[in-house]
Specification:
By secondary structure, the chain is an alpha+beta fold. It is built from three helices and seven strands. The protein has a single domain, classed as 2-Layer Sandwich (Alpha-D-Glucose-1,6-Bisphosphate, Chain A, domain 4). Belongs to the AHA1 family.
């Protein structure tokens, strides 16, 4: 059975606003990197069948060695499904020599109206075994907190 990691939160913005932040290159660079990292998008094609390549750099790699290099995680992300204001499904592949990070992880960002905001639930399936569950769920939660701050400040 494949491993599933989850995180979620309610964000004080409409589903359309949150969806827009999931599909805007500059927005993604600003909010997706979890605490302790920064990100740079190298390739961007926001359509089903398209995707992006992101380089995530650890601000202090001492306690968090990267998967791709000592200080970086590089991911190739494909957009498998895009449903405006409802769902973004991504296929994520880590660039890593270590086989414990191999394979394709699916990340589904589900958006549901919740009062004046949006409940955002992220479900990661087929998570590579080299990724620590606690660290991964904390990283997703950190990205969601960044997303909330980003869209709520813009609104």
């Amino acid at each position: 059975m494949s491993r599933i990691d989850r995180a979620g939160r309610v964000i004080a913005a409409s589903p359309a606003t949150v969806y827009g932040a999931l599909l805007d290159r500059k927005s993604l660079e600003a909010w997706l990197p979890p605490e302790g990292m920064r990100g740079r998008v190298e390739r961007w094609d926001p359509r089903p069948g398209g995707g992006f390549r992101m380089v995530l750099t650890y601000l202090d790699p001492t306690d968090s060695p990267g998967k791709t290099s000592a200080a970086t995680d590089v991911v190739d992300v494909g957009f498998a499904d895009l449903v405006p204001a409802e769902r973004v499904v991504q296929r994520v592949v880590f660039e890593a020599d270590d086989p414990s990070y191999a394979g394709t992880m699916t990340m589904t960002w589900h958006l549901a109206a919740a009062g004046d905001g949006t409940e955002v639930t992220v479900t990661a399936t087929d998570v590579p075994p080299g990724i620590d569950r606690g660290d991964h769920e904390a990283g997703i939660a950190s990205s969601l907190a960044n997303l909330a701050s980003y869209v709520e400040a813009a609104g």
